[in-house]
Amino acid sequence: MAFASKIITCLLILTIYIAAPTESHITCGTVTSTMTQCISYLTNGGPLPSSCCVAVKSLNQMAQTTPDRRQVCECLKSAGKEIKGLNIDLVAALPTTCGVSLSYPIGFNTNCDR
């Protein structure tokens, strides 16, 4: 009986550690402050600052779980709507331009729940 309860306890602990997190630990403040390096490029074009690509890669590294990716997506969409004059083509191409491969398109119509 004691052995069975130890097994059950171990399985419960394992389940807790293996279970995927259900909420993000990334804030919109973190997302927007990270991406400020890119605003000038995304509104005015011109040469892409290396600091922008560092920011894109950093944000991609931060967003490793599905809840984190959803949070980053929602934050970027929200922030993007507040920035006047964003070049949507530059926004959509930014991850690829910076060498980050995403499995979904970037834009204001992106469904962050998928």
Automatic annotation (TrEMBL):
Annotated signal sequence range: 1-24
GO-annotated molecular function: lipid binding
Boundaries of every Bifunctional inhibitor/plant lipid transfer protein/seed storage helical domain copy: 28-112
Gene3D superfamilies in the cross-refs: Plant lipid-transfer and hydrophobic proteins (1.10.110.10)
InterPro entries: Bifun_inhib/LTP/seed_sf, Bifunc_inhib/LTP/seed_store, Plant_nsLTP
Pfam families, A to Z: Tryp_alpha_amyl
Protein's UniProt name: Non-specific lipid-transfer protein
The species this protein was found in: Brassica cretica
Organism lineage: Eukaryota, Viridiplantae, Streptophyta, Embryophyta, Tracheophyta
